[in-house]
Amino acid sequence: MTDLTNLGIADIRDGVAAGTFSAREVASAFNAAVAKGKPLNAWLVETPDHALAAADAADAARASGDLKPLSGVPLGIKDLFCTKGVETTAASGILKGFVPQYESTITSKLFGAGAGMLGKLNMDQFAMGSSNETSAFGNVISPWKRNDGGNAALAPGGSSGGSSAAVSARMAPGVTGTDTGGSIRQPAAFTGISGIKPTYGRCSRWGVVAFASSLDQAGPMAKDVRDCAIMLEAMSGFDPKDATSLDLPVPAWEKRLSGDLKGKRVGIPREYRVDNMPAEIEALWEQGIAWAKDAGAEIVEVSLPHTKYALPTYYIIAPAEASSNLARYDGVRYGLRDLPDGANLQEMYAATRADGFGAEVKRRIMIGTYVLSAGFYDAYFTKAQKVRSLIVRDFEQAFEKCDVLLTPTAPSAAFGLGEKAADPIAMYLNDVFTVPSSLAGLPAMSVPGGLDGQGLPLGLQIIGRPLDEQGVLNAGLAIEERAGFTARPGAWW
Amino acid sequence: MSVDLATVRKIAGLARIATSDAEAEALLPELNNILGWIEQLGEVNTDGVEPLAAVIPNHLRLRDDVVTHDQTGGGIRDAVLANAPQAEHGFFAVPKVIE
């Protein structure tokens, strides 16, 4: 029999339905891959029994003709999603030992659709990071290696770094991610997989540990575009428990997938040609443009004049929202408590937070506290929200001339662990292409385009109009069909 | 605009994060680097621009003012307290706050 861990979500769904293999065989194969993958440190909690129970339910459902959309598909769940009875820490020491008494809407929907859970995935602490180096439980190691004969440990991207490593190392056919400024798309690009952040409001935030609420969106990461469409359909939909959830029907994205771009206009934003962009990324972008043309699209140059201000805008708004959201970690209701001898309540708060939060989380809380403080609120926070309006307007004007935008996903291939850790701003700059669409709440995805000279994957990003996930997925499929990306990391672990 | 050590200590106090003198001194250049970088927004003319309120147009819903019976509802005291570092007699327990 073929190795079941090579299969994607559609393959598993269809194979279980056809009786080619049982769901139990699939779950067992992935459970074994998870157990074998420990050197990658992608998983914080392993839940093989959950995966097996869902598999047995799927096999029973097949016998009774009652299969659900994800019956027999075992998934990895980013540790930002609260899972009932399974420790959820957001990779932070301050939530160590936290066992949610409830299920997030997203995991509830996925399990309701028949999926099982292989485990909880490591990530940057509170989703703050682009390399998975801010986790309190150690770095995730990318399964990819440079082809230079060296053995440098590379970043799987972040913040959904356990997620990207799990799919690319074939420890899970699909995983959940979350994206606040690129945390689905950049790790997908770094590891040669696909991932989509839907329109803000498509996926419920209820039960997702909050980072920056006006930006946070969940989405799937998987081997290909079709698998992303299948998972996204199961994850999306109105949730009255999330005040910003969109009360709209979920389109049949998978059924309407088409890589034919005839009549579509693909916009190329000129401001994304940033200084010092590696020639290989420039070349891949040109290749992507050629693929889009080949798929029938018309190429148009567009302008997004405020692009260079997106990152500084983001690094005011996201920390401001984080400083407010993370005020809840006080050592009283859940998580860590540090009560030094003789400490009063205020001292307990301060000691707990000093012990429980990592350095990057503290840095962002401090920035956020400062930009919201009396006397500075207008100069920083209100100013940033105004620039954010201009960034949204840039996209509105661009989408008068085109249907989707095509850009690189990240300005570099995966970097080595530790290479950027000393300079926060250098790390922030890795999100230069993903942050603007996050600020505008737009659907955007990354698909693998090719390998660089060192044998590492590079991604192309497609950004769409609000609610046009179909247009994004279709353009992604057109690229995927032409890129023929089949490279994968050798199993050194 | 750059911050000084006293401001770093004040922010840490507002953020309720205990910070030693050495930590505050290490944070000072880091925060100033980041604040210096985000100050480039000053170049952008935002005269007459409204600050963004909602990224995707959506209306705020009201719901009936009743206790719900799902996970957000009432009657689940023990579940609410289950993860508390210290819970006593059905309450969260904290150090004495009244002398």
Automatic annotation (TrEMBL), chain A:
Keywords linked to the UniProt accession: ATP-binding, Ligase, Nucleotide-binding, Protein biosynthesis, Transferase
Keyword Ligase: yes
Domain Amidase: 33-473
Pfam families listed in its UniProt record: Amidase
Domain of life: Bacteria
BP terms from Gene Ontology: translation
Entries under PANTHER family matching the protein: GLUTAMYL-TRNA(GLN) AMIDOTRANSFERASE SUBUNIT A, TRANSAMIDASE
Protein name per the record: Glutamyl-tRNA(Gln) amidotransferase subunit A
Automatic annotation (TrEMBL), chain B:
Gene behind this protein: gatC
GO BP terms: glutaminyl-tRNAGln biosynthesis via transamidation; regulation of translational fidelity; translation
Keywords of this entry: ATP-binding, Ligase, Nucleotide-binding, Protein biosynthesis, Transferase
Protein name as it appears in the record: Aspartyl/glutamyl-tRNA(Asn/Gln) amidotransferase subunit C
Record field: catalytic activity: L-aspartyl-tRNA(Asn) + L-glutamine + ATP + H2O = L-asparaginyl-tRNA(Asn) + L-glutamate + ADP + phosphate + 2 H(+); L-glutamyl-tRNA(Gln) + L-glutamine + ATP + H2O = L-glutaminyl-tRNA(Gln) + L-glutamate + ADP + phosphate + H(+)
PANTHER family cross-referenced by the UniProt entry: GLUTAMYL-TRNA(GLN) AMIDOTRANSFERASE SUBUNIT C, MITOCHONDRIAL
Gene3D superfamilies: Glu-tRNAGln amidotransferase C subunit, N-terminal domain (1.10.20.60)
Subunit structure: Heterotrimer of A, B and C subunits.
Listed Pfam families: GatC (PF02686)
Assigned protein family: Belongs to the GatC family.
Enzyme type, top EC level: ligase
